[in-house]
Write a structure and sequence with these properties.
With 426 residues, the protein is mostly helical. It has one domain. α3 runs parallel beside α9, α12 packs antiparallel against α13 and α12 packs antiparallel against α17.
Length: 426
């Protein structure tokens, strides 16, 4: 623990530790409004064609899931490192990570596409895909040993079971400690954090392979799971920063979360912007250097071909300049990271760019089965995708607020709470 003197801690039932009524009242409107927007966006996307509609839905799903699993990792890594600084903000991540459970229900439409066997979303689900695209049969047979609809479903159940079990284990332990104040709960959560992270990494990497990478079934990259994880953990720090700022603007945890905590959140946002860039560039460099057709076509479809330069190539350039260069420069200053308004603004900005990243990963594979090239489907397609992701995100936030109303927004009896309040950057 830190050598800082423990700060005065308010009583566990202090109103400053409860979700402000002005935020709690938004739970139902956000949930209903989000569902309406999601259905509207999905319907608009489906009017273009079925694969585009499901691709837009998958984009929204992966975006929201990445935030939830990023928060799950945040909680586990804090326990693994026995971190004290993050106690006052950890409950936010603990609440968001529970969204892996309702997201399991929202995954059912994606599984439903496998019932038709016509490659509605995943091309490997179409029994004629290999023949129609003149793929090497031997390689295709090996691919479909893994990319089988029944085995795909079983694996999805395993992934969600791991995430849900870990999220419930850490959330229930934290909430129980609010009542009992038992320090042994912290020891237990720390003890299991190592194995928990190993299970998390396996589930998250293979989910990225199954649900996103297999959209281009002949493509493969061993770094793709890490690439998806990099965006997840970055978005987790962003959503925590936004939530902290919103809570403080409504009068909660104003004395507990200080400039020092914003400074650390800003540092992690800065660090994971660079980590995301490092993984993205490393994946591209190895594939470019190897120049193997089975690997290069994924990047070709995203902007290197002459038919795509005006669409996906532009999105790729947006990611380079606005997901890396601009936030890298903007978050470098200590002054920025110690300004709550600027940390909040950069967090919102990066959450938007994270959507662009997920959109760039998924939507180039959204062309209709009879189309020779991927397409963004114009302004209508982009609008449909934005409505889908905005709707699912608002639905998720509405559910987060409903859960947050039931407990304190801070771990009120964590043994490191005093250390966290007194935390100072060196």
């Amino acid at each position: 623990m830190s050598e800082h003197a423990a700060a005065e801690i308010k009583s566990a039932d202090d109103p400053a530790f409860q979700l402000p009524a002005s935020l709690g009242s938004l739970s139902i409107p956000l949930s209903i409004g989000g569902l309406v927007l999601l259905l509207a966006g999905w319907g608009l996307a489906n009017s273009i064609h079925a694969r585009f509609g499901m691709s837009a839905y998958l984009t929204a799903f992966i975006y929201c899931l990445s935030i939830a699993v990023g928060c799950l990792f945040f909680v586990m890594i804090q326990h693994l490192c026995r971190a004290g600084w993050s106690v006052v903000i950890r409950r936010i991540a603990e609440t968001v990570m529970l969204m892996v459970i309702p997201l399991a229900v929202l995954f059912l439409p994606i599984l439903g596409t496998l019932l038709f066997g016509e490659g509605v979303l995943y091309k490997w689900d179409d029994p004629n895909h290999a023949i129609e695209n003149h793929l090497p049969i031997t390689a295709w047979m090996e691919k479909t040993r893994w990319l089988d609809s029944s085995w795909f479903t079983v694996r999805a159940v395993i992934y969600f079971a791991i995430w849900a079990a870990l999220a419930l284990f850490y959330y229930r332990g934290s909430i129980r400690q609010d009542t009992t104040g038992d320090k042994a709960i912290t020891d237990k959560l720390q003890y299991w954090s190592g194995p928990a992270i190993m299970m998390f990494c396996g589930a998250t990497s293979f989910a990225a392979f199954d649900w996103v990478m297999s959209l281009a079934p002949m493509w493969f990259s061993t770094m793709f799971g890490v690439y998806v994880f990099a965006g997840s953990i970055l978005s987790a720090h962003c959503i925590i920063s936004v939530a902290v700022y919103a809570l403080q603007r409504r009068g909660a945890i104003q004395d507990e979360v200080t400039i020092e905590h914003y400074h650390d959140l800003g540092k992690y946002m800065f660090g994971f912007v660079f980590f995301w860039t490092y993984i993205a560039f490393s994946q591209f460099l190895l594939i470019w250097y190897g120049n193997i057709p089975e690997e290069t076509h994924w990047f070709y479809e995203r902007g290197l071909g002459q038919d795509h330069l005006d669409t996906w190539g532009t999105v790729g350039l947006i990611l380079i300049f606005f997901h890396w260069m601009l936030p890298f420069a903007g978050l470098m200053s200590r002054h920025v990271r110690r300004n709550p308004k600027l940390v909040f603004a950069w967090a919102i900005y990066l959450l938007i760019l994270h959507f662009v990243d997920v959109y760039w990963m998924i939507m180039p594979e959204s062309a209709a089965p009879d189309a020779s090239h991927a397409s963004a489907e114009g302004a209508v397609g982009v609008a449909a995708s934005v409505l889908c992701v905005l709707g699912m995100f608002l639905l998720m936030i509405g559910m987060v607020l409903k859960i947050a109303k039931q407990n304190a927004v801070i771990a009120v009896r964590d043994p490191r709470l005093g250390e966290s309040i007194a935390f100072e950057n060196m």
